[in-house]
Amino acid sequence: MTVHAEPTAAPLVDPEAEGVAPALRRQTQERRLRGLVSRLLAADGLQAARLRDAGVTGAEDVGLDDLHRLPMVTKQDLWDHYPDGLRAAPADAIVCVHGSSGTGGRPTLIPYTAHDVDVWAQVMARALGGAGATRRSTVHNAYGYGLFTGGLGIHHGGMRLGATVVPSSGGMTDRQLRLIQDLRPDVLCCTPSYAIHLGEAMHAAGVDPADLGLRVGVFGAEPWTAQMRDQIERSLGLRALDIYGLSEVIGPGVACESLDSGGMLNVAEDHFYVEAVDPAGLPVPDGTPGELVFSTLTKTGMPLLRYRTGDIATLAGPADGSARTLRRMSKLLGRRDDMLVVRGVNVFPTEIEAVLLADPRVSPHYLVVEDRRVSARAELRVAVEPFSDTVDTAALARDLDHALRERLGIGCVVRVLGQGGVPRTETGKARRLARWSAGEPPIPGLE
């Protein structure tokens, strides 16, 4: 499948925010940081107590240069204060609640004021505009609607931009294909794993994506590699761009790749000040992988100062030649808690994906398992599917084992399953990583 020819840049939706000189934006960030600190101190909650313990008694005590000395907030803090989290606005100012299912039965719930929803719509409109969407666009939105922020985030931004939004949500793939054929959207929004699923469904139905009019896809909510990008673009015949967000900060729209961002994602840094830190919480230089930390400069429902996301990426300045003067972040390299330590080697699942999808015989469905059922010394198991049932599976397993050993420095147990052997999902995020401990039921074929 050939990707349609696309422009290399899109007009700025909000020139005063996206294209302002960085020095002027920094003045705005300083002012908004002090406003954030004032709101936190006035709310007199956990963050206020930590600020006072750090010697901050008023907004005049802080500036961007001092930020790395201030306390951080973690997801554990939100869990410890469930259900209200760290809400700073009065209950009657909250207009909606979003969040995630959490782990161990502990949801993360985030309250939004009308102001927060307005900011969300602004940054999402910018994100879609940077991807080439316009008022004349039709946006097929196959992110899930509900507590998950994906569906409604795209919806808010598309409507703010003036585009036509098709709120198809997730699942019911046959109906999704019918809507795409009948309404001919030019923008597709969903998780990258569901984009792969849609491409497979189109192929099975005999539908040629070149006949549908799709130009660009905005895919996020799970890490994905350049190799998966290539497969999506070949399968759907569109330009595939990445979007990043998390409900604790706002939802999708925290950062998004644009047509002219050089493969990185523009951060909406006038609203979300970003840092990258090492495991000790100290800043790392641009270009060095670090954990992303965000301060929500303008949020009012649940403002956060220096929220540790657990997401690993690198930061960089604006793209050369782009009208967008925003700082950029790389595609996610992984999550701090997804990092595997196997026989003393640190491994991110995205490193494994890069090896797997570099082999043209491998489909984009895979599962990585950290197996500790026998001992604390982990064994790494990798399940893949071939693109075709004519593939020599024994040769493929040997080749992948060699390639993974070369890339990671450790051996893996590679299993090539039959087509459909790796579990699928039509809604939410694809399951790419499993951890087995004693008593964990095995996945058929992966023993």
Description:
There is one protein chain. By secondary structure, this protein is α/β, with parallel strands linked by helices. The protein has helices at residues 15-18, 22-43, 46-53, 75-80, 114-130, 149-161, 173-183, 192-204, 226-236, 349-357, 393-408; strands spanning 94-103, 106-113, 138-141, 164-166, 187-190, 216-220, 239-246, 251-257, 265-267, 272-277, 290-296, 307-313, 315-316, 328-329, 334-335, 340-342, 345-347, 362-371, 379-386, 413-416, 433-436. The strands form five sheets. A nine-stranded mixed beta sheet has the order 4-3-5-6-7-8-9-14-13, with helices on both faces. Strands 10-11-12-15 form a four-stranded antiparallel beta sheet. It starts with 14 loop residues before the first helix and ends in an 11-residue tail after the last strand.
The main β sheet shows up as: 9 strands, mixed
Low-confidence stretches: 1-5
Helix content: 25-40%
Q: Averaged pLDDT, please? A: 90
**Using DSSP, what is the number of strands?**
21
Strand fraction equals 15-25%
- What is the gyration radius calculated from CA atoms? 22 Å
Distance between the termini: 36 Å
Estimate the global geometry from the Cα principal axes: globular
